[in-house]
Write a structure and sequence with these properties.
The complex is a heterodimer. Chain A is an alpha+beta fold. Helix content of chain A is 44%, strand content 16%. Chain A folds into two domains: 14-85, no CATH class; 98-126 and 160-334, no CATH class. In chain A, a hairpin with an 8-residue loop joins β5 and β6. In chain A, α3 (44-54) crosses α5 (73-85) and α9 (212-224) packs across α10. Chain B is α+β, with helices and mostly antiparallel strands. Classes of the chains: A alpha+beta, B alpha+beta.
């Protein structure tokens, strides 16, 4: 079935943009425009979500996208992707090592004692999920004092810049398969279409940009029983990854900036080694831009599920690469859902014509049955 | 009084330290250097993106989690005596002008050219801000260090130290 274009409506479309702006500024004389800094810092987890789903680590532009989209995460991620599509790609970095992350949080649900210790960092994990009514009328003075007092009252710690990874300790004990040397060029999902089968690097890249709710839903299906990953979080870490590039003249590694990332390794059911090696645990991996813990965990679970699906064939939806990877992109799925709002007058006219024709046939058959019954 | 460059400041850290201070001040410092030395672009300063590659720590495979902003520049400074000195910069930034300023500073500092002392206060301030940022992050870790006790294995059930 083809589509038929429409024309006209220009004034109304312009008017719709004006109405959106009018609603954004509806506080009127008493209103204060949101600053980029306020969005980036006070709505930092929302900003994190957008840099991750937009596939571009640019917190300032993510904040702007949130502002212009009035908080719609799908629209904001769309805007960030549209921006990135207008910029030239200057280079590709070499593979960055997350072992050099400057952490603000690291936990393990596998071990109580991990090398370097566990630090909860900024988390709601153990907080009461009750409304904080004191924030409703927060004064500027109170607001400004919080960080200042926290910094003043916490003694300067003697901690290293980086911490060892829990999976390395497991590997050293022979509980994980040994590291293999991979030299394949990763799949670039921004330049190549997903034509299945795709390599694992395509799956990881797609999941790293996935819409949080979508990737969580599919991982949740596995957690609830449509799968058998049964994960344990070996380590979840949040921190700033220094991005290193060679100096164009000296070749010496230079830090060109840092990227806030969330990384998660899950340990899953152990498997016998087909090559008669000792059985070891299996691993799933998730890492994305920003502070997005649920997404990183969901990604790690799905990575492990997809590894099984790619190797043995899928036995449930979360192990099916085509099912998972084609249904977790927010911009794709939002675009498809939104397109139903566009005029479909001709196609629907066709549907109505077919229905009326079928109704007439149905009526004539019914009349014929009545006539035959009478006779 | 002129500041001298902190001895711990290394070329590999200059871009990071300069990114920690206001871009306008970096561009102004580079303009001061450019007034004393002739600056030529080896390649046109550019602002765009870099595709970031990451190595997963589970199976040691590389993938692309997304892109980062990147600006780059490469220049040659010619001193009054005719000697030439090359500088370059790649920074996570949107401004090609800023990258060019960092490249000018890179060339001047690497060759210790006259006038480069104008940059020392910026680098020292950038280093101090980064050190403060590092302390703040470590305080977040230290304040939330946790040593969970297994229920029923200790006499002190309500302690968390």
């Amino acid at each position: 079935m083809g589509y038929v274009a429409i024309k006209g409506g220009g004034q109304a479309i312009q008017g719709a943009e004006e109405v959106l702006e009018a609603l954004r500024t509806a506080e009127g004389e008493h209103g204060t425009p949101l600053t980029m800094q306020a969005i980036e810092n006070q709505l930092r987890l929302l900003t994190s979500r957008i840099v991750s789903e937009g596939g571009l680590y640019h917190p300032q532009l993510a904040a702007l996208a949130i502002k212009q989209s009035q908080g719609d995460t799908l629209e904001a991620a769309f805007a960030l992707r549209a921006y990135r599509s207008t910029k030239p790609r200057l280079l590709e970095t070499s593979a960055q090592d997350t072992g050099s992350m400057r952490l603000i949080r690291r936990i393990s649900s596998a071990f109580k004692d991990i090398p370097g210790g566990q630090m909860l960092g900024p988390t709601y994990d153990y907080a009461l999920r009750l409304m904080r009514l004191d924030l409703a009328n927060e004064s500027a003075e109170t607001f400004r004092a919080v960080a200042r007092e926290f910094l003043a009252e916490t003694p300067e710690p003697n901690l290293p810049d980086t911490f060892p990874k829990v999976v390395e300790a497991l590997r050293a004990e022979g509980l994980l398969p040994p590291v293999e040397n991979h030299t394949e060029t990763p799949f670039d999902i921004t330049r190549e279409p997903l034509i299945f089968p795709v390599p694992r690097s395509a799956a990881l890249a797609t999941m790293a940009r996935a819409e949080t709710g979508s990737i969580l839903a599919l991982a949740y299906s596995n957690m609830r029983g449509y799968g058998d990953v049964h994960p344990t979080v070996a380590e979840l870490r949040v921190g700033y990854l220094p991005v290193m590039l060679p100096h164009p003249i000296t070749g010496e590694p230079v830090e060109v900036g840092e990227v806030l990332m969330t990384e998660c390794e899950v340990v899953a059911m152990y498997e016998d080694d087909d090559s008669k090696g000792a059985p070891t645990f299996t691993l799933g991996y998730g890492a994305c831009f920003g502070h997005n813990e649920v997404k990183a965990i969901a990604m790690a679970i799905l990575d492990r599920a997809l590894q099984k699906g790619m190797r043995d064939g899928p036995s449930n939806p979360s192990e099916d690469p085509e099912f998972v990877l084609l249904h977790i992109d927010g911009v794709d799925s939002m675009g498809f859902a939104s397109h139903y709002k566009m005029p479909h007058y001709v196609t629907f006219q066709s549907d109505m014509d077919r229905l009326r024709t079928t109704q007439k046939k149905h009526e004539s058959v019914k009349q014929q049955d009545v006539n035959e019954g009478v006779q | 009084m002129n500041q001298t460059l902190n001895k711990t400041s290394q070329r590999s850290q200059w871009p990071r330290q300069l990114m920690a201070v206001p871009a306008a001040e970096v561009i102004a410092a580079a303009a001061t250097l450019a007034s004393q030395h002739r600056v030529e672009d080896v390649t046109l300063p550019q602002a765009g993106l870099a595709l970031m590659q990451l190595r997963d720590s589970a199976l040691n495979e590389a993938y692309y989690p997304g892109e980062i902003p990147l600006a780059s520049a490469r220049v040659i400074l010619t001193s009054a005596d005719g000697t030439q000195h090359e500088g370059a910069a790649q920074v996570m930034h949107d401004s090609a002008t800023f990258a060019r300023a960092v490249a000018v500073i890179d060339a001047a500092l690497a060759a210790n050219l006259p006038g480069s002392e104008v940059v020392a206060p910026l680098l020292n301030r950038g280093a101090a801000l980064l050190a403060q940022q590092s302390v703040t992050r470590k305080k977040m870790l230290a304040r939330t260090r946790v040593d969970f006790a297994l229920l029923g294995t200790t006499d002190e059930e309500d302690g968390d130290e």
